[in-house]
Amino acid sequence: MIGEDLRQAVLAREDVRRLYEPPDGDPAALPRIEGYLEELRATQRHSIYRALKHPLYPILRKVERVAEGLPHLRKALDTGRVVYVSNHKSHLDYLVELLILEDFDLRPPIIAAGINLFGGALGLLHKHVTGAIPIRRGARDAAYLVTLKAFVAELLQSHDLFFYPEGGRSYSGELKTAKTGLFNAIVLAEVPVLHIVPVAIAYDLVLEDRILAPQVTKGRQRPFSRELAEMVGTAVGYQSRAFVTFGAPVTLTGGESRSRRDVIDLAQTVLAAVGRLHKALPTALVASVMRPSMPRGELVAAVQGLIDRLADSGANLGTTNGAEAVEQALALFEERGVLQPEGDIVRVRDRFVLRYYARQLKHLLVPARPSSEA
């Protein structure tokens, strides 16, 4: 239960009191702060959450969940509070990653999700069952930003947290830069031992690939109900593996003083670890080397060359065999209408979706960009 005790702890924090107490604060800010705290209030009923996998079975049965790096996670859970930091590809991520923890009977975290996911019945589900907290991405109200950071800092005294620092799904397919807002909140938490566990999720096929790929960059926020209807339409014939890989934690100890630069460095370090953990799967390998049309033998050789290059850099490879990668990717892409084998020649049918998968390995092939403070 995220309730009254947490609310009172947030209101008592010095950084929050400065917003509404004289002489420097504005008393008119208090109602806004209390409104934000009410918005963040949630209840996690884990027994009900466990049962959600049954009505969602028609979708979840299409995704084979594969967990990697569980010893890192078990050790972190045994020795301190845990913050999970993951890349974000699909609306399925919320289900797949949390159910991986459920599969192995691991302590359930509170998840931070975009406020667009809190409308209608799904909003009630998040607020009263999963215990998710809504994040107003792009908010500029100082009262909200201070309240959110204080809320998360206090939340970590009694709960683990799972969040997506990219600030939303990747519409281009590539790993985006990290936003540092919640990292600031994490370092404010005076938890004796706090483990930040990098998590990477990768799919053979992303359910929304044909929705996301043509847009490349996100325009305006759309109602989740509309996005859900689109996802149902793209689910026909969909099958995929989902690899969820947990890495070695970055450990913070209570009482450490950290500057703004330290927080940015922390965000970059964790997201770089997420990028290294990201599974390089056959679809991304083939997409990265594919030209408008290629002889199959030339495609196999190009994929093998890319595999060797990635292996030298320590990438998390789904296969080390170029021919095997091409065979697996062609089967998936042909069914998806992305590539078309014609005898010995392979041709591109949907260049937008192909580029979407090619960009999934971009972070492994080019230098990382700096984090955003937004």
From TrEMBL:
Xref: SUPFAM superfamilies: Glycerol-3-phosphate (1)-acyltransferase
GO BP terms, alphabetized: lipid metabolic process
Alphabetical UniProt keywords: Acyltransferase, Transferase
InterPro entries xrefs: GPAT/DHAPAT, GPAT/DHAPAT_C, Plipid/glycerol_acylTrfase
Claim: Zinc is one of the keywords in the record: no
Residue ranges of every copy of the Phospholipid/glycerol acyltransferase domain listed in the record: 82-204
GO terms assigned for molecular function: glycerol-3-phosphate O-acyltransferase activity
Localization of this protein: Endomembrane system
Catalyzed reaction equations: sn-glycerol 3-phosphate + an acyl-CoA = a 1-acyl-sn-glycero-3-phosphate + CoA
Pathway given in the UniProt record: Phospholipid metabolism; CDP-diacylglycerol biosynthesis; CDP-diacylglycerol from sn-glycerol 3-phosphate: step 1/3
Origin: domain of life: Bacteria
Enzyme nomenclature, EC number: 2.3.1.15
GO cellular component: endomembrane system
Membrane protein topology class: Peripheral membrane protein
Transmembrane segments: none
Transport found in the keyword field: no
Name of the protein this chain belongs to: Glycerol-3-phosphate acyltransferase
Species in which this protein is naturally found: Luteitalea pratensis
Underlying gene: plsB
